[in-house]
Structure formats: C-alpha cells, structure tokens
Amino acid sequence: MGEELFWAIRGGGAASFGIVLAWKIRLVQVPSSVTISIVNRNLEQNETLKLVNRWQYVADKFNEDLLIFVRFVTVNATNQEENSKTTIQVTFVSWFLGGVDGLLSLMEKSFPEFGFVRSVHQVKLDYVKKPIPKEVLETMLKRLYEEEVIGKEEGKGDIKAVESYLNWIRSVYNYMTPYVSKNPRGAYLNYRDLDLGTNNNKGPTSYAQASIWGKKYFQGNFKRLVYVKTKVDPTNFFKNEQRVPPLPLLGVNKNNNYA
User: Fold this and answer.
1) Which of 150, 182, 214 is the last residue of a domain?
2) Non-local CB neighbours of 62 within 8 Å, separated by 6+ positions
3) How many distinct structural domains can be found in the chain?
4) Side by side, which strands form the sheet with 84-96?
5) Helix (H) or strand (E) segment spanning residue 160
6) Which PANTHER family match (predicted)?
7) 255/227 Cα distance (integer angstroms)
8) Which of 186, 71, 43 is nearest to 124 (CA)?
9) Does some domain include residue 4?
10) Model confidence over 97-153: pLDDT tens digits?
C-alpha cells in the first residue's frame, strides 16, 4: 500500500482512494476501568457560558488520560407551568482512562470550576401493556418535575440529598405499580436495577433467588438462559451483581427441566 496511501486513507476518506477490504489493528494497553461522564447544562444557567469559555483554555492541557469535549444542541423545553421555549443545551462529555476516584481528583486539579462531585444515578424502566389513565399520566409527570429540585441538591454530594433522590425514584416506581406489567413486573437489563435483588457476595446463588430479578428481565426465557449458562460457564467465571447463575450439572438437562 505504501505509507502515503495508508496515511491518506486514514484521514482523507477511503472512498476517494479505493476500497478497503480489511484492516490489521494493533491493540494497545488500557486500564481495567474506564470512566465516562455526561453532564448537561443550558445556557440560561449563568455559569454555563463561563464553563464553556474556561474549557477552551484548559481542554488541551488535561492529563493525556482525560478527554473532555462539548456539544451544543438546540432544544425545546416546557416548564411545569407548560410554558414552552427554545434554549441551548450544552453537553460536557468526558472519557477518562481510570476509575471514578482518579477522575474526580484530576478534575479538581485541572478544571475545579466544573464542580464535579460523586453522585448516584439510578434508572427504572417499566413495560406498559394497557393505556395509562390520563389522570395518572398527569400525576406521574408532575412527580417527575420533582427530580429537578432533588437533582440540584443531590449534585452537591450531600448524603441526605442522595437518599432523597433514591426515595423519590422508588416512590414514583411504586406509584406506577397498578398501571404496568404484572406477574412478573417487567424490567430492562441495560438499566440494571439492583433494587430487584442481587447475587450473593459469597457462595452460589440459587435458581429460585435469581428468578426474583431474572424473570423480570427475561420472563419465560430465564430458564433457558440458566441452562445455557450452566453449559458454557459452569464455574461462573463471568459474573456481576445480577448474573444468570449456573446450576450443578446434574440439576439441569437439555429440555430445561430442573431436578
């Protein structure tokens, strides 16, 4: 290929120079933990423009393990009084090759104006099979506005504010119980909800115990997933807080029946 053509294809768009059939990639070392953060601000907040301006002067001077870039998007917003207006949303996205503690320490030194703090973020998701009554939707939306007030306090890093946020999201979740899927109440795996239950820190987790959250995520497919897990990872090498558990090899057969 030659060095010049390789250089041109990498940055000049391959379509101008030929058809790329394959790439040979050299892997590089990365740490075991990578931290990504996304923070949204709007230009109506007095400090946002100051942060953007400050970012211009420090972004290229960060530690080489940290990248922060900024996006600007026009959005339409409606407040609780149902007044609609157009505003500019500024999104700060950071990628850091390391853990949360390292990122917080680095931001405190390199970009203290940003006010990065450790906080809690929890997401819950429901599946709705029947239309939700209009009055329930109205109440739900009003309760969602509470997040803005709670979130501002929680952003200060105060433990009581974190507890208030968690209590708020759990109360909304409980309020919606009569209007969402049942037996079991469905959940979405990519929004891992540890309130549903977790595996044991020590020792194996029983099929019955894991079914509490497993059937919420996978419903009728959970039993089959346990069979596959037992077959391909009987020692439970791949694990997390809500892993699909393996069973003793003698306790499961290919027909998904359990002893």
Assistant:
1) 182
2) 68, 106, 110, 111
3) 3
4) 35-42, 84-96, 66-78
5) helix 159-175
6) OS08G0158400 PROTEIN
7) 9
8) 186
9) no
10) 999 999 999 998 888 888 877 777 788 999 999 999 999 999 998 888 887 666 555
DSSP symbol at 156:
T
Look up the domain containing 101 and give its range.
Answer: 97-182
pLDDT one-digit tens code per residue, 20-54: 888 888 898 888 899 998 888 888 767 888 899 99
The closest of 76, 79, 102, 78 to 89, measured between CA atoms, is 76
Separation of alpha carbons 87 and 73, rounded Å: 9
* Contacts for 74-78: CB closer than 8 Å, 24+ residues apart: 75/42, 77/42
Token duo for residue 123: 């997401």
**For 248, how many CA atoms within 13 A lie in the half-sphere containing its CB?**
4
Q: Tokens for 160, please give them.
A: 């009581």
Token representation of residue 220: 């009728």
Of 134, 137, 251, 242, nearest to 188 by C-alpha is: 242
**Residue with the two structure tokens 């917080």:** 104
- Kindly list the catalytic residues: 191
| Spatial CA neighbour of 88 closest among 148, 46, 151, 41 | 41
**Whether 110 and 78 share a structural domain:** no
pTM for the structure as a whole: 0.62
39 φ, ψ (degrees, to nearest 5): -125, 125
DSSP string, 230-243: HHH-TT--S--TTP
**Same-domain check for residues 106 and 146:** yes
